[in-house]
Amino acid sequence: MNLISRLIERRLELPPPLTRDLAVRRDLRVPMRDGVELLADRWAPRAGGEALPTALIRCPYGRRGLLAQVLARPLAERGYQVLIQSTRGGFGSGGAFDPLRQEREDGLATLDWLIAQPWSGGSIVLVGMSYLGYVQWAVADRLPPQVKAMIPQVSESALTLEFLREDGLSLETPFEWGALIAVQERRGALLRRPFQTRRVRRALSTLPLNRADVVAVGRRSAYIQDVLARPAGDPRWAGLDHRHRVAATSVPVSSIAGWYDIFLPGQLRDFRALQEAGRPARLTVGPWTHASFTNTAVIEAVEFGLACARGERPPERAPVRLYVTGEETWRDFSSWPPDGYPERRLHLQPDGGLSAAPPPGSEPDRYRYDPADPTPAVGGVRMSGGGRADNTALEARADVLTYTTEVLDADVEVVGEIGAEIWFRSSLAHADVFVRLCDVGPDGRSVNVCDGLTSLSGATTLTRAGVRLWPAAHRFRRGHRIRVQVSSGAFPRYARNPGTGEPHATATTLRAADQAVHHDPGHPSAVILPAGDIAP
């Protein structure tokens, strides 16, 4: 196992461990309040582990193999003992897995059990990414005094709900995840992952979508069916929303996020709730996607988590640390969103221009959107892949409009929440508006910074479509240009709009639409940037 330890250390660029001599106790039985038992493994140094703080990881993806090596080993080698538990209904744990719904009661019962163990060390730190971060928020308002810190990474307190907005169904992420959990315990699942990924891609184009789960995994998935048929406000989702618990969190929280992560808006919302409630919290946002493999969480668990567990002050740093893309450097701020970045509007102009000046009288720009050949998602916010990408081929499509500034004569820094207002009309009542902000270099290469989509009904009437883009911290360099794309989709990240008004789950007819984007004095379409001075 020393070889695995050294490979992880090298891959993650970690400091040397305190020990590589670990012992693992398998299949500890953790009783839940309804009599179900969940299984857990305890990782600890072979000598002296009982005196160490415990890092608690609750995971729906198993607790063995490479996953455990990456999650548990680096912490157990650097000052923790680690309890990694399989959540209800998976990998030997009892009960049935009902995604997201059992984590509060099971999490509280697990903490009660852990505190009672003679080896628990007297202090606990909650750690983990994605679902493993969500389970932390599920118990955040009822933490026992033995819990000293939380470190959620690329996660948030309402998890699935951002994807299920009625004004823009994010299809790819919840569908991919539903397919993953449906097959992860099948024999040879890891080896079959590439084949499974191709099946999922094919399934996303299935009509009607409520049959796509069978195409992807060979059977019906209750979670996928709920995703397709039940929007965020449906009572079915009420029990999994833990946003109201965030402000009541009693321990320091170090939140680790990514600019291209699927959960970024919710994670920033949670951080603001902590700050507004006066809770001790800090935020790190890097140039990462959801699946980025970095050392940040391990280092934060060691530097921040262990200090909290020992009753010490963590190393001093600003509350907010952001990686500013474009500048490609880390910067410190006092809050999110930071002060000093007033809203500025760049208006869409005729002939593909983009400027702070109001638009003149002009005819709208037009394009045709065909859901049978949907505008594709390129890079951006994806569960797998994504991030910054060359948008050249995307912008060459006839169903994508672009608006670009003149060459900037000074740097322009954008940090905060970004939006757009697009005056839009469609030949069909039901249509989507997708807006993407890009940085165009001196070589003409256009690279995405952030984007967002909203769905409209009644779009045959000229409508001011408000589009919330992903937050960003980006510096547009002197000599570059700022570009805005406008289109009507990013498939399969977002479900394609069939144009008929039929529900996504049951729609079978696809209708092409003629779209118009207006930019004139009465209809000043614009992107809204939290920025300093912007060159005209």
3D architecture notes:
- The chain is of the alpha+beta class and 536 residues long.
- It is built from twelve helices and 26 strands.
- It has helices at 2-12, 65-71, 73-76, 103-116, 131-138, 172-183, 193-203, 212-217, 222-229, 264-276, 296-309, 392-395, and strands at 22-31, 37-45, 54-59, 81-86, 124-129, 147-153, 164-165, 168-169, 253-260, 281-289, 320-324, 329-333, 343-348, 354-355, 365-369, 401-404, 412-416, 419-426, 431-440, 446-456, 463-468, 472-476, 481-487, 513-520, 523-524, 526-530.
- The strands form five sheets. Strands 1-2-4-3-5-6-9-10-11-12 form a ten-stranded mixed beta sheet, sandwiched between helices. Strands 13, 14, 15, 18, 21, 24, 25 and 26 form an eight-stranded antiparallel beta sheet that branches.
- The model has no long low-confidence stretch (mean pLDDT 96).
- GO terms for molecular function: hydrolase activity.
